[in-house]
Amino acid sequence: MIYVAPEILERVNAWLTPTFDATTQQTIKDMIAHDPEGLEDSFYKSLEFGTGGMRGVMGVGDNRINKYTLGKNTQGISKYLHQQFPNKQCKVAIAYDCRHNSKELAQVVAQVFAANNIEVFLFSELRPTPELSFAVKHLGCQCGIVLTASHNPPEYNGYKVYWADGGQLVPPQDAEIIAEINSLAYDAIQFEGNDDLITLIDTEVDNAFADASVKNGSFTTSAEAKKNLKIVFTSLHGTSITMIPKVLEQAGYKNVLVVEEQATPDGDFPTVVSPNPEEPEALAMAIELANSTGADIVIGTDPDCDRLGIAVRNNEGRMTILNGNQAMILMTHFLLTQWKEADKLDGNQFVASTIVSTPMVKAIVEDFGVLYKEGLTGFKWIAKMVKDFPELQFIGGGEESFGFMVGDFVRDKDAVTATLLACEMAAQRKQKNGTLYTYLSELFEQYGDYSEALISIVKKGKKGAEEIKTMMKNLRETPFTEINGSKVILIEDYASSEAKNMTNNSVTALTIPKSNVLIYYTEDGSKIAARPSGTEPKIKFYISVKTAAGTEDGLQILQQKINAITTQLNMS
Fold first, then answer.
1. How far apart, in whole angstroms, are the C-alpha atoms of residue 316 and residue 153?
2. Which of 150, 235, 451, 515 is catalytic?
3. What whole-number distance in Å separates Cα of residue 410 and Cα of residue 134?
4. Rounded Cα gap, residues 272 and 237, in angstroms
5. pTM to 2 decimals?
6. How far, rounded to the nearest angstrom, does the alpha carbon of residue 410 sit from its chain's CA centroid?
7. Within 10 A of 503 (CB to CB), how many other CB atoms are there?
8. Which residues pair with 543 in a beta bridge?
């Protein structure tokens, strides 16, 4: 018999009251009898907002995604909206992805808002997350919600909150909203809304979003170059099938092959182990189609269409997958080149990235005389920069996890416009007898060979969360003094907002908001960041090394670093 703590039993008993429906109560009773371990994991904590909102396994309990946890969120947000906009008829846009229960949960969320006298614009069918960000501003809403769990496994779902600027919640609003939510009991949720306050949306917003994507993602590519580019696209069973083919065709790209086996939205993601374009396996079917048809480029997006994976032909003609840093490098340089050639750079522009992404982006941006800004992981921080610096033009920004944002018409990572941007780059390079692979090689020759890697360690459940906490505690209290034979010279701790110089023990303040991130810098120019995920049960280690331009040992040095840190963390 597994022991269940009294505080957990108290939470469980609260869910066995008439506030909760009979099906929920019976499920809990069955877990008490047959699955006490699952019961504990379902109730030992409440789901929290992370870098991408709230995300978790679907099921009953405080630690699960269900109508009650999402209803409570929505009730709290409703109360906060009325506080912030007391003399307005508040409006909210709601979208959802292909996941199980997404449509039903979106309906629940819409009803709760309507019950609180908030006007709702609900997408009639699944749509990409960036279209929701666009819709918030386009429809003049004060808030937006999207039901999605990005690329997580099928048992997950999630709840992302956007504000009036189209960006995700940032401090202090996130803490204020969480406080409102936590102050509520489940019996405070108003589930029965006025249907007259709910309007279904689709074509009008679709067309406006497509027009904006084409405008922001198109450059000086000739019709002939577009015609000659052969593209393979896969939606990986997600939402992008509703928009990317439409945008590519509208932009003039007619030679597009869709991976039909993966074109139907399906929350089980039956043809992939994980619908994550960061994983090479996810693009396997698309690459197979590209090889059989002689395509030039492969693009695949995650289920909610905010990340994209890209594969291009290398010097031997084989398809090679670009990592997120490499894609960001190419997109950044291409955008800056286009702006420079159009004589649009005057010192009042900026490009943004994150503290765990490749330092090469900063080198490129500053080479063009453009301002570079850096924030915490997550596009909500890049969106906040756009809002915080209205006197500057935002060119674009990205992060290592396969996300990019072109212009400021969307305030989140956007695989729709980024896909068009990738095709613009590839078409122009092909017209000059090159590829994106040769383009990247040229940039390494110019700026130095930057190589990056990501180590992700999954730790599920309550025990896993405790292990991740212990790992970060040890990294802080007993820090590495050297990595792979190179001395650690600087440690940035974003939880304490302090940077410690290890050579003279001096401490300086960090101005970026607090976050559970630790970054080591070594004497040989390497950078190693440790960061627990805010939305997934894992801890991530980001490793970056640089060698001089023209050298060929970057990958070997990178692998040595990976091996060293793996050994030092006792993960091997």
1. 35
2. 150
3. 5
4. 9
5. 0.93
6. 14
7. 11
8. 453, 528
Q: Which residue has the tokens 């000659």?
A: 228
The DSSP secondary-structure symbol of 169 reads P
pLDDT digits (tens, 9 = 90+) for 349-381: 999 999 999 999 999 999 999 999 999 988 999
150 is catalytic: yes
Residue whose C-alpha is closest to residue 245's, from 258, 262, 229: 258
Mean pLDDT score, 208-214: 98
Question: At a CB cut-off of 8 Å and minimum separation 6, what does 435 contact?
Answer: 296, 312, 313, 314, 426, 429
Band (572; pLDDT cuts 50, 70, 90): very low
**Which alpha helices (H) appear in 90-152, and where do they start and end?**
102-115, 129-138
Cα dihedral 468, 471, 473, 477 in deg (nearest 10):
-170
Q: Which two tokens stand for residue 464?
A: 């896993």
What single-letter amino acid sits at 366? E
Tokens 């396997």, residue located:
284
Rounded distance between C-alpha atoms, residue 501 and residue 409, angstroms: 40
- CA max distance for the chain: 72
Domains detected in the chain = 65-201 (3.40.120.10), 208-447 (3.40.120.10), 449-568 (3.30.310.50)
